[in-house]
C-alpha cells in the first residue's frame, strides 16, 4: 500500500489565502509576538510566524526582550498588550528562560487575545466542545488538515500518543467532539503496541523518535506525525520512521510539510477569529 500524503504545506497556503481575502475587508488586525532571549530555534519560529502574518494581511508587532527580563517586566508588557485596543492577539514564544514562570505568564494573557489557545479558559472551552474556542494551534491544525482531506473521524478508533497540554490533551478533546472513540497513551501505557494496533487514526506526539514501530500500525490506518526533530545533518524528521509507516498507512503526514505549517496557519486563523470576536463580527 502506498499512503496518500496529507500535505500540510498546501493546506496551510490555502488557509493563508482565505484569511488574506477576509482581512482585506477588515480594519488592520495585529498580532503581538513576544520573544524573550536568544534561543535560535525560537527566533526562527518567530520569524516564520511574522512572515506568515504578513502574507495573510495581519500586522505582527514583535517585542524582542533580553534573556534576563524579569517576571515583573514581562507581566507588565502582557498587561499593556491586553489593554491595547490595537492588538487582537498575543503570543508569547515558548520556551521562556528558566527563571520565568511560564504558566503564570500564559495565564496573564486575556483569553480573548490568547491566540495560542494555551489559557485555561480556552483549554476548558475546547474540553466543553465549544466550536468558537481559540483552540491550541497544533491540534486545531491536525483536525483542519484531516477535514480538508475528506477524513471524518466520527465513529472511528483514534489513538493519541502523548498527553501534553499543547498537543495530546486538546487533540483528544477535539477528536471526542467530532465523535471519535479516543485512546490517549503516555509513558505509563502498559502495552503501547496493542493500543497502536487498534488505531484507525493514529496521532503521534511523543517527542521521541521511533516511539511507534511501523509494524505496530494496522494497514489502512491514517497516520499523523506531530513530532519534530532536527538531525545532526540539519534535516528535519518526525517521531516516526516515515517510509515503512507510509507503506502501511492509507494516508500519512510528512515531516517537514505536515503539521508544522498547519500550526502556523491556525495561529493566523485564531488571530482572525479573535479580531472578529472582539469587533462583534462573524467569519
Ligand atoms: P511533551 O510535552 O514532551 O509531551 C510528550 C508526551 O509524549 C508526554 O505525554 C509523554 O508521556 C509522551 N511520551 C513520551 N515518550 C513516550 C513513550 N515512549 N511512550 C508513550 N508516550 C510517550 O511534547 P509536546 O510538546 O506535546 O510535543 C511532542 C512533539 O511534537 C515534539 O517532537 C514537538 O517538537 C512536536 N511539536 C510539533 C509541533 C508542530 O507544530 N508540528 C507543535 C508542538 C509540538 P508522559 O506524559 O507520561 O511523560
Q: Could you give a quick summary of the protein structure above?
A:
This protein has ten helices and eleven strands. It is of the alpha/beta class and 283 residues long. The model has no long low-confidence stretch (mean pLDDT 97).
Distance between the termini: 40 Å
| Count of distinct strands | 11
Strand content: 15-25%
Supply the CATH class of the largest domain: Alpha Beta
Described by the principal axes of the CA atoms, the overall outline is: globular
Ligands in the model, by name, code or SMILES, are: NADP nicotinamide-adenine-dinucleotide phosphate
Q: Could you give the order of the helices and strands?
A: EHEHEHEHHHEHEHEEEEHEH
- At the fourth CATH level, what is the homologous superfamily of the largest domain? NAD(P)-binding Rossmann-like Domain
Average pLDDT confidence is: 97
At CATH level 2, the architecture of the largest domain is 3-Layer(aba) Sandwich
- Structural class based on helices, strands and sheet pairing: alpha/beta
Main β-sheet description = 6 strands, parallel
CATH topology of the largest domain: Rossmann fold
Number of domains: 2
Q: For the largest sheet, list the strands in their spatial order.
A: 1-11-8-7-5-6
**Poorly predicted spans:** none
Helicity, in percent? 40-55%
Q: Please tally the helical runs, counting DSSP H or I stretches of 4 or more residues.
A: 10
Radius of gyration: 19 Å
Amino acid at each position: 500500500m502506498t499512503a496518500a500524503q496529507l500535505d500540510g504545506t498546501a493546506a496551510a497556503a490555502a488557509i493563508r489565502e482565505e484569511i488574506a481575502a477576509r482581512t482585506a475587508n477588515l480594519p488592520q488586525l495585529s498580532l503581538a509576538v513576544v520573544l524573550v532571549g536568544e534561543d535560535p530555534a525560537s527566533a526562527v519560529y518567530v520569524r516564520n510566524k511574522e512572515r506568515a502574518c504578513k502574507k495573510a494581511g495581519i500586522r505582527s508587532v514583535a517585542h524582542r526582550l533580553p534573556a534576563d527580563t524579569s517576571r515583573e517586566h514581562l507581566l507588565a508588557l502582557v498587561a499593556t498588550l491586553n489593554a491595547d485596543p490595537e492588538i487582537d492577539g498575543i503570543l508569547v514564544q515558548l520556551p521562556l528562560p528558566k527563571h520565568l514562570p511560564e504558566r503564570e505568564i500564559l495565564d496573564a494573557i486575556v483569553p480573548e487575545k490568547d491566540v495560542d489557545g494555551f489559557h485555561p479558559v480556552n483549554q476548558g472551552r475546547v474540553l466543553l466542545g465549544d466550536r468558537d474556542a481559540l483552540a491550541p494551534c497544533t491540534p486545531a491544525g491536525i483536525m483542519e488538515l484531516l477535514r480538508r482531506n475528506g477524513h471524518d473521524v466520527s465513529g472511528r478508533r483514534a489513538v493519541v500518543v502523548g498527553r501534553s497540554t499543547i498537543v495530546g490533551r486538546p487533540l483528544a478533546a477535539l477528536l471526542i467532539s467530532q465523535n471519535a472513540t479516543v485512546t490517549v497513551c503516555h509513558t505509563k501505557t502498559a502495552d503501547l503496541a496493542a493500543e497502536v494496533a487498534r488505531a484507525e487514526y493514529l496521532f503521534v506526539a511523543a517527542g521521541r523518535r521511533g516511539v511507534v514501530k511501523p509494524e505496530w500500525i494496522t494497514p489502512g490506518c491514517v497516520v499523523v506525525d506531530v513530532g519534530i526533530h532536527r538531525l545532526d545533518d540539519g534535516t528535519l524528521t518526525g517521531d516516526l520512521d516515515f517510509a515503512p509507516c507510509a507503506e502501511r498507512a492509507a494516508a500519512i503526514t510528512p515531516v517537514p510539510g505536515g503539521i508544522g505549517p498547519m500550526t502556523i496557519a491556525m495561529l493566523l486563523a485564531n488571530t482572525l477569529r479573535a479580531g472578529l470576536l472582539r469587533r462583534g463580527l462573524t467569519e
